Amino acid sequence: MSDHPVPPQPADITSGDAEQIKQRLDELLDLFRRRLLDDKAKNALIDDLRRQLDAASLAPLYRELLHVVDRSTAPANDLAVSLGEEIIAVLERHGVTVAPTDAAFDPHIHRLAETRVSPLPAGQVVEVIRPGYCLGNLVLRPAIVVVSAAAPASPTPVELPPDPPAEFDPDD
Question: What's the CATH number where 132 sits?
């Protein structure tokens, strides 16, 4: 005996049965489409997590290379400077970017070294002491920056009463 039900003969199907079959097919088609969309969303999420995992696993290597770059720019040695520039180029080809410093101070990507009175609006990055680097949304190393501060407020002058007239006698 078979586990599959025997389909009805076309002559045995009524219009009500046909409507139920059509409704059930529509439900199954809708379920199939939703599951297909869910699979696409899951695959996109898996791909994104893989990219994040790859970035996180390479981050320690990139950080060490950035320390090499820092040491290579310190001496006045053309070979060392060239090597540092080449390492930066390699890192850039692998998605490492310089942390932006052309806007307001952002504690997620900047570290404050000092503040300085400047004509720029308060909180604006004035100078970059050491560049920072990011890999996508991951900050490999924050930029060390100087940030503008508002000029100190000048003390409000105290209004003194006018000098008394010369003929004024305080004993009167």
Answer: 2.30.22.10
In a domain, 164, yes or no: no
Instruction: Identify which of 148, 141, 153, 142 has the alpha carbon closest to the alpha carbon of residue 114.
Output: 148
Are residue 87 and residue 112 in the same domain, yes or no?
no
118-165 pLDDT tens trace: 888 889 999 999 999 998 888 999 999 999 988 776 666 666 666 655
Q: Which residues contact 81 (CB under 8 A, 6 or more apart)?
A: 72, 73
11 vs 4: CA distance, rounded Å: 20
Residues in the chain: 172
Is a pLDDT exceeding 80 seen at residue 61? yes
Alpha carbon distance 77, 83 (integer Å): 10
Contact 143, 99 (CB under 8 A): yes
The domain containing residue 116 runs over which residues?
A: 97-154
Question: How many structural domains is the chain composed of?
Answer: 2
